[in-house]
Each structure stands twice: as C-alpha cells, then as structure tokens.
Amino acid sequence: MGWSSATEIFDGAVDVALHFIPWDGNKQPPGILAQAVVEKMYKDIDWGDWDTQDESIYADELTQVRIDMGELDPEDFD
Fold this sequence. Notes:
Layout: H1 6-19, H2 30-44, H3 59-68
Helix pairs in contact: 1-2
C-alpha cells in the first residue's frame, strides 16, 4: 500500500521552498527554480513507498527527476 498523503506534503514543502527563494526576474525563470527544488526535495528525503507522484502539482518536474534516477523508463513518455 502506498503513501498517498505524501503528495500533499511534498507539494506544500516545494511551495514553501519556492516562496523563500529570491528571484529578481533576470537570472533563472521560475520553471528552472521549481525543477531544482523538486529534484533536491525528491532526492534528499526518503519518501518511503510514496506511489502517487503523478498526482503532484509538480508531476512534470518529478517525472524528469525519476527518469534521471532510473525509476521510470524515458521511452514510456515518447
């Protein structure tokens, strides 16, 4: 059985982190910041048997991280 409530916790934690990252509009667009935060959050915290990553508001960013980590096959997304 998966840990579906992790989706709300993950999304909330990413939202908080993004809120406190200074961005002046000239350096990195928010999409790059979101990708970096999602990657760090996913890789550095043990999410146990979280199995509803696709329900996250950051699902697109998570998909790329999971492909990079070998959890997903990139051919499934062609």
